[in-house]
Amino acid sequence: MNSNMDELQQSRVRSIFDNANFVIDLGLRLTQIEDDYCETVLIPGDRHRQQHGLIHAGVLATMADHTSGCAARGAVGLESDVISVEFKINFLRPAIADRLRCRGRVLRAGKMLVVCEAEVFAEKDSEEKLVSKAMVTLAVKQLSGPSS
Amino acid sequence: MNSNMDELQQSRVRSIFDNANFVIDLGLRLTQIEDDYCETVLIPGDRHRQQHGLIHAGVLATMADHTSGCAARGAVGLESDVISVEFKINFLRPAIADRLRCRGRVLRAGKMLVVCEAEVFAEKDSEEKLVSKAMVTLAVKQLSGPSS
Amino acid sequence: MNSNMDELQQSRVRSIFDNANFVIDLGLRLTQIEDDYCETVLIPGDRHRQQHGLIHAGVLATMADHTSGCAARGAVGLESDVISVEFKINFLRPAIADRLRCRGRVLRAGKMLVVCEAEVFAEKDSEEKLVSKAMVTLAVKQLSGPSS
Amino acid sequence: MNSNMDELQQSRVRSIFDNANFVIDLGLRLTQIEDDYCETVLIPGDRHRQQHGLIHAGVLATMADHTSGCAARGAVGLESDVISVEFKINFLRPAIADRLRCRGRVLRAGKMLVVCEAEVFAEKDSEEKLVSKAMVTLAVKQLSGPSS
Is the pLDDT of residue B147 over 60? Predict the structure, then answer.
């Protein structure tokens, strides 16, 4: 994994993936972390579909939320964690894809709140199309105690 | 299942569940359909959790989106289907629950767009708390052909 | 003005109106305050219109945001103030009205964040229609010093 | 005004400004139009403020909505008009500015819906800061008759 971030901070971001059952089960993989930026990939299968055979809005929303959380987590430093307050997502095109790639970036990292945006791209036949865009607000939580 | 809706329309709403792999896999169950209203239930398990042991935002978002879709589907009539355009969801409290219940209702059903709201309640120790609230915009799609 | 709220807290909520040039200039009036609830009224005129003669989305958004702010301000106590973090608003019907009435209520008041919803109703020919609905997230700010 | 757009289409976008009382009254000015892009400027004054002396959220929201509407109007062609369905806006920093500049761009222009994003920048002491970001969904309306 390509990153300029220091190893300890990287491991904190990775732990958001390694300890989150729902996104592991979903098949979401972390592919890049930078300061203020995170990228994830998901290979869609039959189990991700809704009634019309398209990828379910909930899959795209989960990608956008979780990838934003990782970008935010990288921005707040070792002593803090983040938790989603709210998000809004637009579905721009039917998501038909061999691979979904989500790019999350921090728009603003404050002491109490971090605001991110996340774009989900559908890759098919070596073309990439923007299929969803989200804005995500996260609250910063101070971690305490020696083990955290 | 309790409903005043006629049987054919009910079966259309149910088919949104029966043919949607992602929500079947998630464990979401349809418990009530009325005109302009839909209710679903999910029993949270370890696989629905994020890194802090709470229910993942993506699970709550999927419930809100899909339940809204069913409420909207019930409102648009037999000749039409609906698809999510966008939604916004707020996470109001940590979702700790024996059972999650989502209530979706139609705020406005137009010819081209339907707007719904969905509330997710956490049931624990016979208490019910509002943990998330969403607003969902859906586009109406005309179905065509004899088989639809 | 009808209210169960104590007078000091009421005066704090009213001050959000009396000191906010933009909403005074807009013509927004505070008509009711309760714990967790606020109601405002605006008489639309030509200056509130957009290019099609309808009331501008920005007028409805300002009503929803400011009324939510007052409902939130009433909920956080004397030692705290609130500021908008974000909001989302849906425009459900064309706003044609003799009078617009906005009802804002608190969905969740936490220590750091308050989440409200606000509904805007168009009153015309003694009928009332829901024309917009918003969800608003506000941050709580501690006030300090004797003069605040 | 700098633009690559043809003159007739430009005049359509300008008419969204020239005929919208609320934004004229607000002081919003159109400074640039391109295909899929629009830029506006507002010089904030005392009348745009809220109770803490900051620019009111409703002013920023109106800028974001209207500028998005112009970007969308430029994208849909001469035979169509647009109307706001919903938007979501985040307030990232206190808006303290000599001048506000809003940049709206089209993320996706479909036959029925256009989705835009709009960023509002505060210019002060020759520095520019992102103070708000919005996502706006608009419906496409077919114009009819020879005069439109």
Answer: no
- At D148 the pLDDT is 36
Per-residue pLDDT of chain C (148 residues; tens, 9 = 90+): 555 678 888 888 888 888 899 999 999 999 999 989 999 999 999 999 998 889 999 999 999 999 999 999 999 988 899 999 999 999 999 988 999 999 999 999 999 999 999 999 999 998 999 999 999 999 999 887 544 3
Find, among B10, B140, B136, the residue nearest to B63 by Cα: B136
CA angle C48, C51, C52 (to 5 degrees): 95
Q: Is the pLDDT of residue A148 over 60?
A: no
The contacts of residue D54 (CB under 8 Å, 6+ apart) are D94, D95, D96
pTM for this prediction: 0.94
ipTM of the complex in this document: 0.93
Contacts of C21 in chain D (CB under 8 A): 46-50, 56
Contacts of B30 (CB under 8 A, 6+ apart): B1, B13, B14, B17, B38, B39, B40, B70
Name all chains with 3 or more CB-CB pairs below 8 Å to chain B.
Answer: A, C, D
How far apart are alpha carbons A10 and A4 in whole angstroms?
A: 9
What chain B holds in terms of domains, given with CATH numbers, is 7-142 (3.10.129.10)
- Going by the DSSP 8-state scheme, the letter that residue D56 receives in this structure is P
Asked if B92's CB is within 8 angstroms of C108's CB, the reply is yes
Taking CA–CA distances from C108, the nearest residue in chain A reads A85
The C-side interface with A (CB below 8 A) comprises 85-86, 88, 112-113, 115, 135, 137, 139
Task: Print the SS3 string covering B71-137.
Answer: HHHHHCCCCEEEEEEEEEEEECCCCCCCEEEEEEEEEEECCCEEEEEEEEEEEECCEEEEEEEEEEE
- Comparing CB atoms, the residue among D88, D112, D135 nearest residue B139 is D112
DSSP A126: T
